[in-house]
Amino acid sequence: MPASVKAYSPGHISGYFSRITGGRPEDTGSIGAGLVLSDGVTVTVTRSEVTDVLVLADGMANRGSPPIEEALDRLGVTATIVTESALPIGSGFGLSAASLLATIMAANKIFSLSMGISEIAQLAHSIEVECGNGLGDVAAELGGGLVCRTAPGITGVTCRLNVGMEPVAIVSLAPIPTQNVLSTPASMERVAAAYPGRCPRDIEDFFILSRQFAESSGLITEQVNTILSACDNAGILASMTMLGEGVFAIGEDAGAVLSQFGKVYSTMVADEGPKILEVTS
Ligand SMILES: Nc1ncnc2c1ncn2[C@@H]1O[C@H](COP(=O)(O)OP(=O)(O)O)[C@@H](O)[C@H]1O
Ligand SMILES: CC(C)(COP(=O)(O)O)[C@@H](O)C(=O)O
Q: What's the whole-model pTM score?
């Protein structure tokens, strides 16, 4: 019986999305496209009498995480959880989904729950949808690459382009609480109308579609607009992080251009999905 298990899930930046509301969490979610990020969440689950969650992200430490606590409740277990991420929370990196995937995967191992990856993903997706924290991140984070989802739910990925270990530079100005946007009908109407309606052909096409979506979604702030203009002037492919007040970009000079506007996070397109990292007896 292991004493603790460590698991990892990649993160995910959506370039564009559109909500699909079904009758159940299984058929509710989003369609859209995004990049799976090698910087995601590493979670250590340790047996304990009471549940306690410590969230370490971008140099900050916080106690408690409603979605993680909900996941443990639904599994009927208690544990000490430490989640670690180099990226900030609430800024469009799909970290709530990544923390759920890694936690449930590690809990499955430590408590011998015999769940398969579909069951793990379904539980993570249902909690994401029910808490209003995300729509399509769980499906995307089940593998690496440039992902296009054409149906809601965990099996909605129809295309996963392998773009290699492409470096991605990100500047994040402020969080945008996902719940606020998803629960504002006027915002969601503009988002729905802005949806480009097709999958990207390649990474360049992905940035073009994402940028068109960002421009017409009404989500671009003045500062994001300034950064995107600087990227345009330098000939850099860039768009807005959905949903966070930030910009992600690729290309050799991306980091240097973004660094004029704030701290730059350097990550990569991930080449794989969630996995167990360590089992300690
Ligand atoms: N790395 C993490 N570890 C634990 N809980 C997390 C993590 N990331 C997000 N959460 C939980 O999910 C909630 C919603 O996060 P959200 O704004 O959707 O973040 P993101 O945009 O990064 O997915 C947070 O308030 C927090 O309770
Ligand atoms: C864009 C979003 C609805 C939220 O993403 P995040 O803020 O990273 O939780 C995502 O889940 C999607 O469906 O594409």
A: 0.97
